[in-house]
Amino acid sequence: MDALFAELSRAAPASRLLGWLNFSDGKPDPRWQRQLDDVYDIASSARPTEPWSLIRDWWNHELAILEGSDNAAFKDTSQVRGVVGLVFDHVLPAYRKHHADLLGHATDPELFTAFFVARVCEATLSQSPPWSEIDRIVPGSLQKLNDYVGHRPVPVLETRAQNDIYAHEKVRPVPIYLHGAGAAKGKYQFVVERALDLLRETDPDILAEACFDPAALSELAIDPRAYDHGHPVNRRPNYVFGEWDPHHIDNQGRYRRFVVRRCTLDAILARVDQHPASQRDEYQFEAAAVFAGTILMAAGTSGSGPATFDSSVTLAKLVPRIARYRDAFYKRLITAVGGKHGERLRTEATQWRQPFALARQHLNQELARQRAVEMQDSMLALLFAEMGYPEASLKTAMRIPATSVRTLAGIRTRVASGHLAIRRGEFAQAARMLAECEDLLHRGIECGALADPWNALGFQGLFPLFMSREDSIHDQRLDELIETIHRIFHVHADAQAAAASAGDAELRKSLMRRLEKLAKWWDRHATHEVADLPRVHGGERAAAAEHVATALAGIRTADGGAGDLAYWRQQREGFRSPSAFAQVVEALLQQGDIKASLSLLMTWLSEAAAIPLEQGEASFHALSHRWLVTMLHNEQIAPSERVSLIVRFFALLEANAEEFWDVPELALMEQPAEGEEREEIYEAAYEEMSYRDSTDDGEEGGVIGDDAASYFPLDEEAEELEARLEFLTAVGGFWQSVVPFLRRHGDDSAEMLEAVAGWRETATDWRRPLLELLERLHQLKIPEPVGGFEDVMEYDRRRLLRDQLAETVIDTCLETSHALRLLGSLLPGKPDSDETDPPWEAAARRVAIALGRGDPAAVRNELPEFLRLFRTQPLLFVPMSAGGHPKNILRSRQAQSMLRFLLEQLPRIGLIRETYHLIRIARLMEQNAAPEGRKISEFDHLFPSALQSVLDALLDAAHQWPRAELDGEEGLVELLRRITDSFLSLWLEHSQTLRLSVLESLTTNAEWEALRKFIKKFGSDLFTPQFLALANLRSLLHRGIGAWLDSLEE
């Protein structure tokens, strides 16, 4: 140890380092910082895991010697001893503890570098004596250290201070360069030094345009936070490369600290490490060049100070400018490289059409790889959490540096564990899981891993990337946050309901108090007031949970128990939200109470006009289907009684649905007549007055564009139309789900046959109005955009709204048609045909009857005739976004639906060969009357459905095969392999016919050259970020190129 201490003293005398600590007030001293870095480099080699602890030991050793010497500077060492003890024993551990969540991925050596320790010493010294006041000095030091958060928009709200950033969000960047002290020693030293040299040598015009003045750089630091590829800030141009620290400003209004991302630096250095030492100097230079280029690009987005950009500057204007000076920087730099290295670089530039191409491409590819791995592992971690595998979820999440994924996985895991504990009756365990969920939620928000809920109201669900509103994007983290709080509320409600049913009043009260506290905290952020975000109102959830728990607790004293319908009628007024109905119905279904749950479902349906049938996870349709499944599988109820319950269920559906039972009236969508008065309340007061238009500009209406042409009826009616169509779709699914049971147990009773005939008549009555609605939607004109980019965005939104509603109508038609087919198979005789039926419908009905009976011979007998009529049908269709007609789409989707039904059912009765034959026919059918333009293929969905059905059928049947026929497990595996190989050859044939890019249509050199010339001539003006926005491109293609060119001329 003495030899090591001696080596450290030779690098920098301890008396100088300790003397500065003994007399300094914390003002930075570049010479002291440089000396500390020199000794730290030696300490890092000697003790790589804790070099700072070696520095502490050395300082304490040397300080003891100096105190015993005649050195007047160390007669009083109270400050240096106090500061050394504070820094190493208190402030550094406190910093680690403070950022346990945000910096949990980082190792101590990555954080506690020489220059970082220097900044900690400066922050501690700035707190002033007495040095024994640890409780004052440590928090003060942390507050001074934690001074960086980066681009973090803060909403300005009356209920929240403007600059109120959570304390755990702010960190201390790790310095790798300090003005006067130079670059920190270590793996980044060479690239930092050479990059800064290149920037100092860069032409002033490029530096000015890039908003980067090397003389203004007082510190270059690394952001210690894990880079979160799922954060919306990644859409901010060049953010992955770094930024000027927006909160580190001098008295001239200039940014002084530049912060880079560790992932970018590591990706740049990875290429250097891949090459032999003999070429290292060349690749180090290229790494430095790319690093310098990324700094310039990032600086151009940040600006040199807060006054650089005003609100008129948008990213659409800024990004092309950054691209121009970036290219100029690389082009000028590459010309200055001489010798063989320069020749190689210029050859690469010619071949790859950009200077430093391979180094830049390596950086982009490495960042893309990092993003792909993070996205993949994050989805996997959340999936494991949903499935109830906490160890696998957390293990996967720990592979991801981003704090957000670890936090979300931790919450989702505990939510799943809470539900499991409730089902097991372990209510205390469920309460512990809820407490941990809430703790993780608050910690995640406060460290920035989860979205700040204030942003929902403050930015209306958007995330500002730059100054203008058009540079804001949807903040998907708010959806994740709302989904998370919804899940926690759901566990709370389930736990209360279970505790109430079990009679545990004390636990129920405890959970209720905690839920009310959580709901009050959540509601003060008013996220439920933002229309574009999912609605989760804590007060409503808490009230619903309390009412459900009270109702379930009251069952214990009710005369008739849970089946007492009079009791539930008394409780009816308390159910005022979908979640309240859903919670009590779920609880009753878990208890197997058929009658009470049905009564509450119908009560919910009768109030559908006021209480939505679908809201979040609260779904009338899903619970009704669950009720049917529960009832149909209840062996304690006689089959005949279950048939009667089925009939009663649909009768109650029709009776309580009211207008929901009918296809929506088209009158809902009619445009108000031009000039029609909407408000006549004050008309009489002005009957005798005349009016002179002082703003007459030749335009009728209040403002330009505020006329009948801007009216779009679906803006008001789409939500109600969609709700009613989804109900009809659900009813069609309900009919389908009861057919197998009625076929087995209906015994052709008069009650059953009469009900089935009525259901089929209802479904038939729906078909024509549905087709008329589909046609009206297709004919509905969308007002043309008359203004700028925002009008184009609005046009695209309305078009999507119309097309999505048309898709909903098509889904309803498909479910209704399939229900008609299955219901018809229950009736004797030949059902009446309809002119809207496809030509193969009658044959399909006969196949469905044979499948329902489980008769392979009958199916084989009916299939040839069906296929003769069916195989001529077109399967491909042009989507509505490309001008396709919805009726043609419906025709193709009907054929696809029938194919999917057969591919799922045929293997179940042993018709494996027929299934394979059918999927081959499906591939050939995609050539039938193929429409012009962009087409949609469903083969990639039909194929896995067929293969999975075949494999499932074989595995199920294998349990009953004699072992001698299988030849053990190896025989079964070989059989599955042969089956899979047969399907594989079919898939390979199909994949060769796919067109993945529109560029594949360019088949000649002349076409390619014409495209190249067009791009070179018009590309810089035409292909701007705003033009390439997805909504703009969709609108342009939907309206047509001609219409777009005409609008440019106007």
Write the layout of secondary structure elements.
Elements: H1 2-11, H2 14-23, H3 30-46, H4 51-67, H5 78-98, H6 108-111, H7 114-125, H8 134-145, E1 174-178, E2 182-183, H9 189-201, H10 204-209, E3 219-223, E4 242-244, E5 257-261, H11 262-273, H12 280-302, H13 315-335, H14 339-352, H15 357-387, H16 390-398, H17 403-423, H18 427-446, H19 454-459, E6 462-464, E7 472-474, H20 476-502, H21 505-523, H22 538-555, H23 565-571, H24 578-590, H25 594-606, E8 614-615, E9 618-619, H26 620-632, H27 639-657, H28 714-745, H29 750-779, H30 789-824, H31 841-852, H32 856-870, H33 886-905, H34 912-925, H35 939-958, H36 963-966, H37 968-991, H38 1005-1022, H39 1030-1039, H40 1041-1049
Helix pairs in contact: 1-3, 2-5, 3-4, 4-5, 5-7, 5-8, 7-8, 9-12, 11-12, 11-15, 12-13, 15-16, 15-17, 16-17, 17-18, 17-20, 18-20, 20-21, 20-22, 21-22, 22-24, 24-25, 24-26, 25-26, 25-27, 26-28, 27-28, 27-29, 28-30, 29-30, 30-33, 30-39, 31-32, 33-35, 34-35, 35-37
